[in-house]
Design goal:
Blueprint (H helix, E strand, L loop, with lengths): L1 H15 L5 E3 L6 E5 L4 E5 L4 H4 L1 H4 L11
Antiparallel strand pairs: 1-2, 2-3
């Protein structure tokens, strides 16, 4: 999780010049949230995903296809 959060952070800064407004939740909580203003990044340990069930929370939201 720490490596994933670090890579997201580094790529957004290096590739797009975007810094987070806030980061919270890691390393011990098994959950990371990073607020990049227009985008919120959630990273969960596999065991924590069902606890938060974000897919269910946002199931009625429209899905967007992103160009990677």
């Amino acid at each position: 999780m720490k490596a994933i959060a670090g890579e997201v952070h580094d790529r957004l800064i290096l590739d797009h010049g975007i810094k987070p407004m806030a980061i919270d939740g890691y390393p011990t909580s098994q959950w990371v949230i990073a607020d990049y203003s227009d985008v919120i990044v959630h990273i969960f340990h596999q065991e924590k995903r069902p606890v938060y069930a974000l897919e269910d929370l946002w199931s009625d939201a429209p899905r967007l296809k992103l160009k990677l």
